[in-house]
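Recall that a protein's primary structure is simply its ordered list of amino acids. Everything else, from secondary elements to tertiary packing, is in principle encoded there. The following example makes that idea concrete.
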Amino acid sequence: MSILWVCVGAYAQNKQLLYDFTEIPQSLMVNPGAKTDFKWYTGVPMLSGVSFQAGSSGISVNDLFANDGLDFNDKVRDRAISGMTSRDELSGTYQIELLNGGFRGRDSDVFYSFGIYNEGDAIGYWFQDYAILAFEGNADHLSKRFDLGDLKTRGAMLNVFHFGVNKKLSDQLTFGVRGKIYSSIFDFNSSRNKGYFVTSEGQNNLLRNTINADMEWRTSGIRAIRDAEKEETLPNTILKRGFFGGNLGLGVDLGFTYNLTEQTVISGSLLDLGFIYHANDIKTYTLNGNAITEGVTAILPDALVDPDKDFWQDLVDEIETIVLFESNTKNYLSFRPTKLYASLRYNFGRQAQRRADCDCGPNATQSNRGSKYANGLGGQIYMINRPRGPQAALTAFYHRRFGNFMAVKTTYTIDKFSYTNIGLGISIQAGLVNLYLLADNLLAYQNLADSHYTSFQFGLNIISWGKK
């Protein structure tokens, strides 16, 4: 049943727990305009920002493989073939920081951040009509148009080099921008397919098959990865292509935080507004054309003149002449999945003590972070650009600080994967050491095989506040 899992992969998902969790330096990665009060920080390489997310909006592993006494083929037919639609997806992402750091400039209102991270992402929508055709055939589906556009998938692995500037413009407004260079390791996409296949009653034969296709599958870097696997040089190839030896692109992140009042704050960010230009190791496959056939036709007695004639091969050759299957090495652009965050937050309760030592001299300035209240309550919205249109999630959250030692954030999120997604994040500060752990959809941990979504993030940082 490999047809069920061909779309399994990873794709950039919501990081609602990390967003606006400003005790964690990595919150700048989801909002470059977040308020900060660090003097400097550095992440521990390979441990400072690790995240993994995966989701299925259709079926779970348990739906097919649970020991429930039901026939496996019946479960495939009822829960996958008939139970899913072309809008259902399998998706997720992983991200590992190779380098991450930041420091405050001579102007204490400006904070710089920089780093490198590796990311792998992919998404596949359920190819409903393909699955019906493969599982049931076309005999019982006369005149049904099987939509070739059901095939929509894309994915990539890349390294991202970034540098950000975060500036306090006023007591109310903080703005941030982050520039990015993408170094693509590999990429594949097939998301603009059109056409149909239909079987109807024939005139010269029992059945007539019609195919109308305009399909494309684009790849870059795949051949290099396959060759490296055969030659057992895969790590070196990934390293080379990830450090400017592959295809390159540019992107930008934007973000802000604005205090409507002392206790009411709004924020927002636009991430990965960028592209990659694929110019090396390209291979694109296309299927284009329109053909109608009623199968092999042998007209007697003329067919007996040449008894060795291969009528089937003649039919195949005729269809291939009309519906062209070709390949090329043309350059192409791919756009990154742009993401949007926005939040409204109300802070209340006893104010937390400032981390920074007081500097009471004549040149003293206020902390860039401002007052820190013990509690924060609010809502967030998240949107991401997907092959079948924008996808959104709504989150309600509660944020609690326990002095300068620990902060906790809990979330309740509604999206296409789950209506019961409860998440919990903890950040602990022990001296200069910051440790955080964030996990989503906690109720699903009772039975991961039955879960439609899972996500976790963790990291280890060294942070200094110093004097402002």
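Residues 2 and 8 are 10 Å apart (CA to CA). The radius of gyration is 27 Å.
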